[in-house]
Specification:
Blueprint lengths: L1 E2 L5 E2 L1 H7 L3 H28 L7 H18 L9 H17 L8 H24 L2 H25 L2 H6 L4 H5 L13 H20 L3 H18 L2 H20 L1 H26 L16 H16 L1
Antiparallel strand pairs: 1-2
Length: about 300
């Protein structure tokens, strides 16, 4: 709005918008709302679709990150300069992943690219949220997405996993009448619990920052119940470790973050050596395989780990 002589008020900005073409309006919207919309979309969609399509979360993150970068370019903002230590750790992790899988017969580039793309897009969205100050406005869609995801799990529990059975084309006879015991429908729902457990902590922060302790407790209990009911033992342990890390960050702030990063790097580096030292003396295959007090799924994992670390 601009005042000129004679007391006339000219709505130049409104007039310009009315005369804009569709492409110009889209560009204007991207400049001013594109980054916010990308962040809100990712916060809403990722936890909402986790239960039924956990792999769809990756393209959603990629689309949101690309949209955020495009909006920044159109708005004339300078590209984000990554924090040096963060960038160095990110590159080192990808290099370690590539080196650890170099023995594989299959192509190494694809899994490493997926790892790099997923983490990289997440870092882009996080940095964009911090720069534009959209963290608070993203919290609402995040909580809504968590609610949708938990509702899907509740519906699956009372309906005999109707959504999952429909998406995978499974009839009841595939589950109940198969001589081998039928399809384990719950196995399709495991990965989604990991996504919900990751998004739990910022959602809890949103509630606690506003003094909504009852909602925070209800959300934490719901995610924990879904993880224990549908998730694997690994997912349950990961949720517990996440709770310890989140509590440490509340108590110690940035120091806890640095210690956690150092601990993560140490674990990544030492794990192959430690597993090799424990499993190398064991005979896990063949007619003379050593009996172990583990379920068959656990023994199979040990065989896979031993095969892998021998080659790493």
């Amino acid at each position: 709005m601009r005042r000129i002589k004679g007391g006339c008020i000219i709505r130049a900005d409104l007039g310009q918008r009315l005369e804009m073409t569709g492409a110009a309006r889209l560009r204007l919207w991207l400049e001013h709302r594109g980054a916010e919309a990308a962040l809100r979309m990712a916060a809403l969609v990722v936890p909402a679709v986790a239960a039924v399509a956990p792999r769809a979360t990756t393209p959603v993150l990629v689309l949101a990150a690309v949209s955020s970068i495009l909006a920044g370019i159109l708005a004339g903002r300078r590209p984000l300069a990554p924090h040096f230590i963060t960038a160095l750790g990110f590159v080192a992790l990808c290099a370690w992943a590539a080196a650890s899988t170099a023995w594989s017969i299959g192509p190494v580039a694809r899994p490493v690219a997926m790892l790099a793309g997923t983490i990289g897009c997440g870092l882009i969205l996080l940095a964009e949220a911090r720069r534009t100050g959209e963290s608070a406005r993203v919290a609402g869609p995040l909580v809504l997405g968590m609610g949708i995801g938990l509702s899907v799990y509740a519906f699956e529990a009372v309906s005999g996993a109707w959504i999952t059975r429909t998406l995978h084309g499974l009839a009841w006879r595939d589950i109940l009448e198969d001589p081998a015991g039928g399809v384990n429908v719950a196995s399709y729902l495991i990965n989604g619990t990991a996504v919900l457990s990751l998004f739990l902590w910022p959602a809890l922060g949103f509630f606690l920052n506003r003094g909504r302790r009852a909602q925070a407790i209800a959300l934490a209990v719901s995610v924990a119940a879904v993880t224990v009911w549908y998730g694997s033992d690994t997912a349950s342990v990961a949720l517990a470790v996440g709770a310890l890390g989140w509590g440490a960050s509340l108590l110690f702030g940035g120091r806890a973050t640095r210690y956690a990063a150092a601990l993560f790097a140490f674990i990544v580096l030492i794990t192959p050596v430690a597993i090799h030292g424990v499993l190398a003396p064991l005979n896990l295959t063949g007619p003379n395989a050593q009996p172990l007090p583990l379920p068959n799924s656990g023994v199979v994992r040990l065989v896979i780990w031993k095969f892998t670390v021998d080659r790493i």
